[in-house]
Amino acid sequence: MSKGGRPRKVGDAEKRLLRQLVEEMPLATLDEITEAFCTRTGLSVHHMTVRRRLDEMGIRREQATLPPPQGELEQRYGYRPAHRRQQPGQRYPSSLTDEEWRLVADIFESDGDRGTPPRYPRRLLVDACCYVVRSGCSWRMLPKDFPAWQNVYRTFRRWSQQGKFEQMHDRLRIQWREREGRTQMPSAAVLDAQSTRSSPQGGTSGYDAGKKVKGRKRHVLVDTLGLILAVSVTAASVQDRDGAHPVMANGMEKYA
């Protein structure tokens, strides 16, 4: 009899059944134990009642502990040695390999012999541009084994206006799609926008009240593999529906 005078639903026989259920289902949750107990006994018992009776019998649920790792565990995130590998022709990990340069050399090399001969190899200038874009450093912080930063910056501006980097990206995207067994031109695309903080130097900026971010907003159009098709950068205050039109028009012009 309980202290209140009402007989317990879970007596000694029911406790033995509870112990048997725990032995049969060691990985079951408290609700599963309660459901199985009610099914076998025909009683209607709350799961807290079952928990108290299990505590009285000294049965408690404990978190399983994993055995100590044998040896050093492999890091599964961040950069690995494969990301930092350098082949003999590379100055830095961001530099193009010989095979990569062979695939895109015709984009940057000039046709014909007119004009002043180039002062620096085109591949060295491409590697310098890739170094700045990949590392995020300022142009003035280019390593000394690259050409003068003023020369690299002017070259980067000129090639960007000519669309050479975009041509290189389009060529790499086509190769990747062919590698995945897709057609060269995508038939479906996904559009999304992201607001990011920006530095006070240059460019338009605004305030995105929805995300509470002051800066710029990038509207990105990608294919079903996640490869970039078109990008548009606006102030963060521009609504997604308004910023979607330029990037969609650019994508339709190139791939429709």
TrEMBL record:
Residues 193-202 have a biased composition (Polar residues). InterPro entries: IS402-like_dom, Transposase_11. It comes from the Bacteria. Residues 96-169 form the Insertion element IS402-like domain. Residues 186-248 form the Transposase IS4-like domain. Residues 191-211 are annotated as: Disordered. NCBIfam families: transpos_IS5_3. This is IS5 family transposase.
